[in-house]
Design goal:
The protein has a domain of 31 residues. It is 79% helix and 4% strand. The chain is flat, with a radius of gyration of 21 Å.
């Protein structure tokens, strides 16, 4: 594939992305959303984040599995659930993951 074709494809993807993102505001035209849809939209970000975290901690190349990083994230989740700070959670996750990889 030539450099010109690659840049044309990137430009086309950017244009399509912009059109998709603009479709919602253009279609709604400043109208208020129904309450049920506002509640669903509020839940989309946590659902997407949890899906990304699950894929990141359970994937090992092309396979799914449990490893040191999975244990690190689980321990950090417990720290955060018990009221620890985010910095503490990340530090604990890094230490647990490094310790398990060293074993």
């Amino acid at each position: 594939m030539s450099a010109g074709t690659t840049w044309a494809l990137i430009g086309l993807c950017a244009a399509v992305t912009a059109l998709i993102k603009a479709a919602g505001p253009v279609a709604l035209g400043g109208r208020e959303l129904p309450p049920w849809s506002a509640r669903v939209i509020a839940l989309l970000a946590p659902a997407l984040l949890s899906a990304l975290v699950c894929v990141s901690i359970f994937s090992h190349g092309h396979d799914l599995g449990v490893g040191a990083d999975t244990a690190g994230v689980a321990v950090a989740g417990v720290v955060l659930w018990r009221g620890g700070s985010v910095v503490l959670g990340v530090t604990v996750a890094a230490v647990v993951t490094a310790a398990l990889r060293a074993i």
